[in-house]
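quick one
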Amino acid sequence: MRILFVCLGNICRSPMAEFVMKDLAEKAGLSHELHIASAGTSDEELGNPVYPPARRKLLEHGIDPSGKTARQLQRDDYRRYDLIIGMERSNLRAMERLFGGDPEGKLHLLLDYTGRPGDVADPWYTRDFESTWRDVLEGCQGLLEKITNN
Ligand code: 4NP
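structure w/ 4-nitrophenyl phosphate:
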């Protein structure tokens, strides 16, 4: 199964989800079955590494996102992935525009895999990377549960 996490810039929220999900998949012995990546809807941060405070938050939990650089979502990502998971509702709207809708029902919101649907906390203005970590972890845990129970 191929999973793509999507946010605006691909330097904070979606790379956190990518590397948390890779970590959970590895611990569950599923890394060979899951291909996991992330992208941004904008070209603003293209080629940039994971934003330092987001990287520090991952490192606090033993997760190292070294080597990841921001890439922009492409139209053909729709056929290349099975699940395309946005961090907030505006990501879903941007994806529906780019992809021309969601004919195969591949688009989801990360927190829809939790008991508290909504947007993942955006740390860009708040600088609150702990809330983002908590949301991302809970969403990825819910997603893993969903995948393994299917
Ligand atoms: P991300 O965070 O979408 O979680 O990677 C942001 C990155 C860049 C900007 C906003 C949010 N920006 O405005 O450039």
